[in-house]
Known about the structure:
Helix 5 packs parallel to helix 6. Strands 5-6-7-3-8-9 form a 6-stranded mixed sheet, sandwiched between helices. The protein has a 3-stranded antiparallel sheet with strand order 2-1-4, with helices on one face. It is globular and about 50 Å long. It has 7 helices and 9 strands. The protein is α/β, with parallel strands linked by helices.
Amino acid sequence: MLEIHNLSKRYAHGDEPVDAVVDVSLNVAPGEFVGVQGPSGCGKSTLLLAAGGLLAGDSGHVLLDGQDPYALDPDARAALRARRVGFVFQQFHLVPYLSVLDNVLSPSLAMMTDGAAGRAKMLIEHFGIGDRLHHKPGELSTGERQRTALARALLNRPGIILADEPTGNLDAESARDVLEYLTEFTRDGGAVLLVTHDDRASGYAQRTVRMRAGRIVEG
């Protein structure tokens, strides 16, 4: 589902550029839950953005479902992301003026999805927030916002979910719910790449790699 080969990414930072990712190779297969751990600033989030077709590396290759997103034009790349990748972030990135239903439906704007409204309502019920269908994000608890973000990530039936510290703002019970939902996704044949510094979160992964200073040092 995801293949990363010898990926490197450097950021300009004053007179001394920063090597955020250095010669990283990583594969995630369908049905696999992979965790990436490491201290803040070690390159985890940069790796995730590159994996999802949101940030091109300076060298190396990324393949999503066998396609190089960075070899596509911007519209085709966006369509590939919408079709095959679900994103879940620590800060949720919900649209504040849209209802729960419309936030969950927002990925369908990038591609014509048959039955999107029905699937969105089914996912919202599945995540236990059916009574919040028409609420705005500001009217939700933190856990409800993350459940909304998960429902949105699953709308287009992606092959892989890329999750960046998805439990970082959650209490223990809500965090457990999110991690169990991600595990359920892999049992159904999906792939998960989870970036976290939380040992409890990485404990749900089938395997964990560890990064330091932009490199994979274990796993």
